[in-house]
């Protein structure tokens, strides 16, 4: 039996068998037009090790040319080459479960983000058929462990807004999730800071650095870091 739902005209499907869990997949409209929440919930009569859960969907290849995720760096191309980071693996201390597709002008085509920000996940997509960007996400069952039920939500954003605004809204969405309230940032952490590394690297010059500190102080800097390469010291 195929377990699926429709999100903005796109079918989202659960792939594979998740026995002994019974799955349910739903979609609801979000707080603005173009935003949708797809929720996968699985339940079992008895506690069991959660199997890997995988959702798949296909986005028509219309009006998007680049990608963004937390690991892609400067490689925003939608190629399938090694190191292209068309998928993002993330957990509580690495990466972030969000992926964005946008066009040449930076307008969002589709940005999706998972509510599961703690345990191991993998999401992204690739061109296979040429007509669609084939997307998927995987929740690693072993990282969840033995449970009687489990739920994960995918927030889809199809709004025609700058992709960085869509990403900013993802951050605000995550802030509303249980256990994800951001830590307070002290005022001192927002002040400018002078680091020697970006000028001298391992060729640290104390006298010249002092001169730069004097100039930086005139510009409002109050703190400086002397870094001569702690990675290799």
3D structure, described in words:
There is one protein chain. By secondary structure, the chain is mainly beta. The protein is built from 4 helices and 14 strands. The strands form 3 sheets. A 6-stranded antiparallel sheet has the order 1-2-5-11-10-7. It has a 6-stranded antiparallel sheet with strand order 3-4-12-9-8-6. It has a two-stranded parallel sheet with strand order 13-14. The longest helix is centred in the last third of the chain and has 13 residues, at 163-175. The model has no long low-confidence stretch (mean pLDDT 91).
Structure summarized in a few sentences:
With 233 residues, the protein is mainly β.
What structural class results from the helix and strand content?
Answer: mainly beta
Radius of gyration: 22 Å
Helix fraction by DSSP (H/I, runs of at least 4)? 10-25%
Order of strands side by side in the largest beta sheet?
Answer: 1-2-5-11-10-7
Mean pLDDT comes to 91
Q: What is the H/E string? A: EEEEEEEEEEEHEHEHHE
* Main beta-sheet annotation: 6 strands, antiparallel
Give me the number of helical elements: 4
Write down the overall geometry: elongated
What keyword list fits this structure?
4 helices; six-stranded antiparallel beta sheet; elongated; mainly beta; 233 residues
List the SSEs and their pairings.
Blueprint: E1 3-7, E2 10-15, E3 22-29, E4 35-49, E5 53-60, E6 66-68, E7 87-90, E8 98-102, E9 108-114, E10 121-127, E11 132-139, H1 141-144, E12 146-157, H2 163-175, E13 193-195, H3 197-200, H4 206-218, E14 223-225
Parallel strand pairs: 13-14
Antiparallel strand pairs: 1-2, 2-5, 3-4, 4-12, 5-11, 6-8, 7-10, 8-9, 9-12, 10-11
């Amino acid at each position: 039996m195929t377990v699926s739902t429709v999100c903005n005209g796109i079918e989202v499907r659960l792939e594979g068998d998740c026995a002994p869990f019974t799955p349910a997949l739903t979609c609801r409209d979000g707080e603005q037009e173009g935003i949708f929440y797809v929720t996968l919930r699985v339940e079992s009569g008895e506690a069991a090790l959660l199997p890997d859960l995988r959702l798949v969907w296909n986005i028509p290849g219309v009006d998007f040319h680049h990608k963004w995720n937390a690991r892609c760096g400067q490689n925003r191309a939608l190629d399938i080459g090694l190191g292209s980071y068309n998928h993002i693996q993330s957990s509580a201390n690495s990466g972030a479960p969000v992926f964005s597709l946008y066009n040449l002008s930076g307008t969002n085509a589709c940005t999706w983000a998972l509510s599961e920000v703690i345990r191991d996940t993998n999401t992204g997509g690739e061109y296979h058929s040429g007509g669609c960007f084939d997307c998927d996400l995987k929740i690693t069952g072993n990282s969840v462990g033995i449970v009687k039920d489990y739920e994960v939500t995918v927030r889809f954003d199809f709004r025609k807004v700058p992709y960085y605004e869509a990403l900013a809204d993802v951050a605000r969405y995550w802030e509303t999730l249980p256990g994800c309230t951001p830590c307070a940032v002290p005022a001192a952490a927002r002040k400018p800071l002078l680091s020697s590394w970006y000028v001298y690297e391992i060729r640290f010059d104390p006298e010249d650095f002092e001169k730069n500190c004097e100039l930086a102080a005139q510009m409002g800097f109050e703190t400086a870091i002397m870094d001569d390469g702690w990675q290799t010291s």
